[in-house]
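My current task is to audit a protein record that another person submitted. I have pasted the whole thing underneath without changing anything:
***
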Amino acid sequence: MDPLTTFGRDEEQAILRKAFADTARGVGGCVVLTGAAGIGKSHLLRAAVEEARADGLAVATRAAFELDRAAPFITLASALQQIEPATSAFDWIADTGESQFQTLDRLAGALEDFVAERPLVIAIDDAQWTDEFSALAMRELVTALASSPVRWLFARRPRQEATPGQQLVDRLIREGTPEIVLGRLDEGAVAGLCSQAVGARVDNTVLALAAGCDGSPLQLEQLMRALLNTRQLLIRDGVATVVGDQLPSSFITIVEQTLSSLSEQTRRMLEAGSVLHGRFSADTLARLLGTRPAALLPSLYEATSAKVLVDEGDGLAFGHDLVRKAIYGTVGGAAKALYHREAAVVGREEDRSPVEVAEHLLRSGRSTREAATMLREAALEVAPAAPSTAADLMVHALDVLGADDPDRPELAADTVGLLARAGRLERAQRLGEAALYTGLEPPTEAALLLGLAEAFKHAGRNRSAVEYASRGLSYPDVPEAVRARLWAVRAHALFYTGDLTGTDRSGTSAYRSGMAAEEYGAAVFGLTARTLAAQAEGRLDDALAHATEATEIADGIRGEAAHWHPRIWLGDAQAALDRFEEASATFRRGREESERLGTAWSTPLWHYYHAALLAASGRLDEAVAETDAGVKIAETHAAYALAVPLLAGQARLSVLRDDTAQAREYIGRMRHWLAEGITTAPEDATWAEGMLLEATAGPDAALQTLTVIYDAMPRRSLLLVQDPGAAATLVRVALLAHSPERAEVVATTASDLADRNPTVQALTAAAAHAEGLLRRDLGLLREAIDGYRGIRRPLALAAALEDAADATPDPVRARKLAEEALAIATDCGAERARRRLEQRLGRERVRQSAPPSVLERLSPAERPVAILVARGRSNREIAEELFLSRHTVDSHLRKIFVKLGINNRSVLARLVGDEGSNSAST
């Protein structure tokens, strides 16, 4: 460990020592070091890691480089493959052929298993250059492993450029990760550092000169070495004094002073090496200079002794990139071009990154077309794992070609698709619109429009998706396979703009074109759009038929058709028909298939629909965990269009649980994304806002917000399909807000829906409930109660019991109905209904004479998770045993920690202790 790192950083080191000590005790977490280039963050990181290693923690470290961005997963994978002490636990990473989703899931399990034996520190220097897939992985793993002894340490420079690594760190800080900002060294630290560097106490002449370095450790060290090398530092009686008149005054001058003390051969070697980024070998340097590696040994020794180069075991690197840049700035233009030309040749022969080779070609002043081709090939290679990086490469290639190059239109079409996939929609739109006016061939133009339509649909910008898909379909020469995909995207986008007829027609066209062109994924996606339209119109048997056919096609064809996961919509159609057991089995099988295929896009949807099923069944705590997990995944993968309905679900559940403050927070986040142009079904966003307003501001405010749902009936009845009990709530709100005509529309819609689906008991009960509430008809309310008793919708039953109690003249009978409703609400965790019913019954909750035990403080869904943690199970093992997703287990654990005021698994295990074992045995 370099002793220079200790000067002036006592407070920062204390923070890191505490963090590592916490990790040794089983507490996970993350720390960020932020500082300008040369301020000493890399030295501090290395010193901290050395202390962690000495204290017995395993460590995995890596410095990211700018070229990492073109090599997906290299940053994190390289760190884990160099873990100390050595282990084979992560050897599989190098050869994995899995999807991103599968790799992340497997890596989370491997890390859990590893840290069960030994706490781990993962330190990434220059984290702003982290590659896109590693950034995605770490964004998820920091949260997923928060309950395990993994300490993440990121050092980064403050930059304006929004690289994936920078976005990762910024997001972690926003979510509460502590940030240590390294400032300039104070006068005492400067004096200590200078004394350490020269091996003597320094006087005021040295300190006056050092003041020009503005407290930068790198510049101070370079200055002291320059003064020593040029013999401008006189040491007498243990005190160093500056002598001479020609003194270095800037960083570049300091580096030049250092170089001037080196031999000419060493200077030439360093000039050649300055064209290289990151680590490089002596062989590479020799080839650039046209000599033998052995001939460079004296120069390598001289350069490393002067600390201009450092030997990192697996290669050489400049002591700091600022030093490399300073040396590069001293190289003449002709020499630079020559070195870059040779570096491009060497890079090709050594199979180095195409991006690196292309950069050398560009800087050599030759072969711009060749460089553009290499950039395009590199972009297409990394696109599956790093679309944003791929888009940057393609934009760079476009810049290389220039505006009049004949290859530009096709390259622009590819770039538009990548920009759109990366979520950079405005840039994609501008470039795409410009490309459309350059005379593209019809297939290229159709592909460009399809890419824009799919990307805008994925981003939740459904109106724009409809526009682009419609434009693509207007061309006569569109290949049938492309046409099928355009119809499918248009169908789903139309649903979220409220056009149910258009949804069904476009879905039918997607199905027909897809089957004809053997584009089975489009056929499946078109059928699922028809499922949505049929549900919204109350044609539940049709919805089931479409979803069933889509699933049969996907199961039979497999391939891309299976990747659309029609079981998402099949399970929802089954739930709407009261076939809860079938729906649960469908969701379980579909989720397992999704994990096997590695299709991460579908994961939030599984959580969304499974949460809806759990909520309908009255299992509110489990539904909360599912929606929470879904939101985390959607936001991690920037799938904000899926985050919106999940946030709405969280808000609705919070209202039921009487946590209106939390509901407001979810609604606020949801509104943020809606303001960004995302569209969603009113049955999600509007219904959630209406529920919150009814609970906090009263029926008048709720009615005003819910007008769009009232006015869409009877044509659109999706809310009553998804939640039959909502019919009575809408009637109640309308009546209390003095709008009987709207209450009448809801009751009529519920009745028509029940008549068209006579086998669905929930709809029959809901119609009786709505009509009974509207007419204050006790007989109809009793019919509703009887109907709900036969199905698994306990909260709907509790609401019908409460309304029947209101309408019952016999106080004894009314109280009995209310008490039954109270028992159901209490059992389900519906706190708002429970408190209201307790007030009605004049009953106060019985206070416990003794404080509740640990398990009593947890919900029924959280208790088995806590017990299994106490038994030493990992999150992955708990998920398998309880038939949950790993993300749902993560959600339960986060909530358990908040409730108990703890922050790691070992403390939870100790708290549960014998209590968990006794509970499990009983």
Remarks:
- The mean pLDDT is 89.
- The longest helix spans residues 500-517.
